[in-house]
Amino acid sequence: MFDTVLVANRGEIAVRVIRTLRSLGVRSVAVFSDADADARHVREADTGVRLGPAPASESYLSVERLLEAGGRSGAQAVHPGYGFLAENAAFARACVDAGLVFIGPPSDAIALMGDKIRAKETVQAAGVPVVPGGRDPELAEAARALGAPVLLKPSAGGGGKGMRLVRDLTVLEEEIAAARREARSSFGDDTLLVERWVDRPRHIEIQVLADGHGNVIHLGERECSLQRRHQKIVEEAPSVLLDEATRASMGEAAVQAARSCGYRGAGTVEFIVPGDDPSSYYFMEMNTRLQVEHPVTELVTGLDLVEWQLRVAAGESLPYGQEGVRLTGHAVEARICAEDPARGFLPSGGTVVRLREPQGDGVRTDSGLSEGTEVGSLYDPMLSKVIAYGPDRETALRKLRAALADTVTLGVQTNAGFLRRLLAHPDVVKGELDTGLVERVVDDLVSTDVPEEVYEAAAAVRLDGLRPREGGWTDPFSVPSGWRMGGTGFTKAVGFPLRVTGLEPVTHRNRGTHTLTDDQVTVTLDGVRHTFHRAADWIGRDGDAWQVRDHDPVAASLTRAAHAGADSLTAPMPGTVTVVKVAVGDEVTAGQSLLVVEAMKMEHVISAPHAGTVAELDVRPGTTVAMDQVLAVITPHEAREEVAR
Questions:
Q1: Chunked in runs of 10, what are the mean pLDDT values of the chain (645 residues)?
Q2: What is the pLDDT of residue 480?
Q3: Planar angle of CA 418, 422, 426, nearest 5 degrees
Q4: What is the pLDDT of residue 643?
Q5: H helices of 379-495, where?
Q6: Could you tell me which of 403, 525, 405, 401 has the C-alpha nearest to residue 458?
Q7: Residues of the chain by 3-state class (helix, strand, coil), percent to 5
Q8: What is the pLDDT of residue 510?
Q9: How far apart are alpha carbons 214 and 264 in whole angstroms?
Q10: Beta-carbon neighbour count of residue 538 at 10 Å?
Q11: Quick check: helix, strand or coil at residue 641?
């Protein structure tokens, strides 16, 4: 076994790998960008090495700096985690050339399976069924020959980045261009392939483990059908769809796929499976790394996959063959991401001001967070994973819903509350899943309506912030006592339909009372008691959170007046402007694409709300923007004509 291992990653996966290294008595080396100097993975490692500035290209994606960090720290091996350079064959080869063991498969296997086109050809030759499709340079022709719907996929990467489902071939060229941009941004390679889309498919993957002595086994399957925008959000093991015969057949196909590329270490073979015919499964791709969802396999097999990655890389043999693998119980994982469901799941950001993550009694949280963590737009939006285990699926789901309700991440909007509601959906409870289920039911699980008790709690928190503190002088006009020269006044908080008068918040029906502590606010409304977590100007419960902000009607009216007759286009999320297609004075049509904002590897197109003229343009490619920052102003044609008259 190694003495020292460098973890070439950040966030929750770095913390996860460091945990196993510690349990094995292996010294861990963390690497960090300037933005992560005080991150949890750095504090939990035995030592840390600075890579460079915050952009990933100058830190976590810099092969030169990572190898230098390995040399300076005395590391013998490198664990790449997932994301960044985990599936980069050149990095794996560079590690070996530098005298470092790459904890993963050989670089040739990474290169082969990383090229989705060659991968399909290779596994097909090994007898594994594949999805019909085509490739560059005849991509558009192949798509039209297949007929809609088709799925565009980057050849060089996975994780849903750059994938586009095209149901209308009249927009094929535009979708291809967008997929190429995102693929180039995410993987440095814009080569695409196209596949026939299977309606209402299930996404099932097989975990494989191979050593350097010719032994390859599979560790059962994971159901990954609950997805948004081709991104997995909930995974479980085993799948309720498969019987023992199908499980064995798919497992053997995965083993053959691994053998076909000379695989070594932990890897995952992904299949698309028609829900009405599980025996008809198709190879999609092989991920030559540890998967985000590996904990559910660990819980049902009792194996530590990171430990076996290390042992295999150190030259050890697998302890048993396929007959020794046993699946016991059921496990479900939910991914906590920095995104705001009420704003269309756009990426969010901020500082974590209160954190509580459930552990124990069949619940595990893998996280890279700590209080004070700054969540920005530079890296992936996934913050943590909550995993629950039970003797059966019903128990695991129930425990996971409870764990998500007990998860507190104030200061950053997350999807925890949405995931809790998704796991209670009747189709999910029954196991009737497919990759389109979430999109079909999302409107039932997301609401922009704020419960009345949240208004009461927000007013109580806002009022507490206005109270005069002991010591020092207090401006009498800022005290929410209700006194004004012209009569009783009131404070309007957060734009909510309530008034805060005197020292007690009340709605227009005077039905609420409250109590506050340093970390909670309790509201009793119509005889029902509601308890919220609180920190700074945030409140939360059951995985949901709300920020309490001042509402200044004068400032709001001035803003509206400044842009009277025009429409301001604002940034829907904190991020970076990557594409600007117009200039001041340009005429635009309704729905025309004007700019592209990218955050956390996700693109958002800003379109014209109506026909008009670009009156203001405050950004250019490379500009970093905050959420709700004005990007451009479009003057409607009718407004311009009115001014002319």
A1: 98 98 98 97 98 95 98 98 96 98 98 92 96 89 94 82 90 94 87 89 97 98 95 97 96 98 98 90 96 98 98 97 97 97 91 96 97 91 97 98 98 97 98 96 92 90 70 61 55 43 41 83 92 95 90 58 66 87 93 87 83 92 86 79 47
A2: 56
A3: 155
A4: 45
A5: 393-405, 416-422, 426-430, 437-445, 452-466
A6: 525
A7: 30, 30, 40
A8: 45
A9: 9
A10: 24
A11: helix
The alpha carbons of the chain give a radius of gyration, in whole angstroms, of 27
Q: How many CB atoms lie within 10 A of CB 529?
A: 11
Task: Please report where in the chains the tokens 């720290």 appear, as a residue.
Answer: 73
**CATH code, 562-644:** 2.40.50.100
Question: What's this model's pTM, rounded to 2 decimal places?
Answer: 0.83
The token pair that represents 469 in the structure block = 């503190």
Strand-strand pairing, 27-33 and 4-7: parallel
Which pairing describes strands 201-210 and 192-196: parallel, antiparallel, or unpaired? unpaired
- CA gap 239, 228 in Å, rounded: 19
Q: What's residue 97's pLDDT?
A: 98
Per the listing, tokens 């913390």 go with: 15
- The residues with which 529 forms a beta bridge, in sequence order, are 524
CA angle 125, 131, 134 (to 5 degrees): 90
What's the angle, vertex CA 468, arms to CA 462 and CA 469, rounded to 5?
Answer: 110
Domain 4-103 has CATH 3.40.50.20: yes
- Number of C-alpha atoms within 13 angstroms, CB side, residue 267? 33
Q: Is 243 helix (H, G, I), strand (E, B) or coil?
A: coil
Q: Please state whether beta strands 538-541 and 544-547 pair in parallel, antiparallel, or not at all (unpaired).
A: antiparallel
- The CATH architecture assigned to 132-196 reads 2-Layer Sandwich (3.30)
What is the pLDDT at residue 460?
87
Name, in order, each residue with C-beta under 8 angstroms of 471's C-beta and a sequence gap of 6 or more.
none
Per the CB < 8 A criterion, the answer to whether 104 and 80 are in contact is yes
The residue type found at 17 is V
Take residue 419 and report the two structure tokens written for it: 């995931």
Residue with tokens 């064995």: 248
Q: Give the largest Cα separation in the chain, rounded.
A: 87
Q: For the domain covering 201-445, report its CATH number.
A: 3.30.470.20
Contact 419, 543 (CB under 8 A): yes
Task: Give the Å distances, CA to CA, from 461 to 85, 464, 507, 521, 536.
Answer: 44, 5, 15, 7, 9
Domain boundaries, the chain: 4-103, 132-196, 201-445, 452-469+476-547, 562-644
CB under 8 Å, gap of 24 or more: what pairs does 487-492 form? 491/462, 491/463, 491/466, 492/551, 492/553
